[in-house]
Amino acid sequence: MGAALTVExxxxxxxxxxxxxxxxxITTIDGLVGWGDGTLNGRELAVAAYLSDHVVxxxxxxxxxxxxxxWQYLYRGAYWRGGPVTMxxxxxxxxxxxxxxxxxxxxxxxxxxxxxxRTGCLVYTHASGRDIPELLDxxxxxxxxxxxxxxxxxxxxxxxxxxSTHASVSSxxxxxxxxxxxxxxxxxxxxxxxxxxxxxCWEVWCSRSFISWIAPSHRAFATV
Length: 224
Description:
This protein folds into 2 domains: 7-112, Enolase-like, N-terminal domain (Enolase-like, domain 1), CATH 3.30.390.10; 124-221, no CATH class. Helix 2 runs antiparallel to helix 3 (84-105). Strand 2 (21-28) and strand 3 form a beta hairpin. It has a 3-stranded antiparallel sheet. The protein is built from 7 helices and 5 strands; from the N terminus they run E-E-E-H-H-H-H-E-H-E-H-H. By secondary structure, it is of the alpha+beta class.
């Protein structure tokens, strides 16, 4: 890996399969291609402009092996440093250069970073439902597929989506905990769970206890 691996060009790709994703493609004069991700949800086009206007013109002719040198050059070379747009753009370059380095060496990237330290990792998925029975059916499907960690969400009656609605929280007690943003409110029907002491829940919030309360027969799912 001593010989230079010269960058010929870089391209910014914005695709939208449901939401925007930003990919940086760096190609060397030898034809190797490195891929990096610079997605910044909701601000992908800002990162695309930053890369296209301020970063891509600086990459041609640089040695792709010089990953750290290139990162320092791009980060310290600008008057304004940091921020989500800048760092997302630099992350895309960093990933693409490491990808190129690994391909030039003929080994998986993780081998250059010290080797594998595990053979797998725990992942989670979402279980959604228009009501609790439907939610529990979705949980069963995900468990059958092998998931051991499942995020639960149920639609508030009358709402169109289960991902952006929450049950309203009200309490006669005017405690700071009871006044918390409803972003942490139980995603469930306020009528169905009117007996649940929400104010007390905020004082001693525990996802495991809440899930066990809404589905006593499914306590195994409350593994958060």
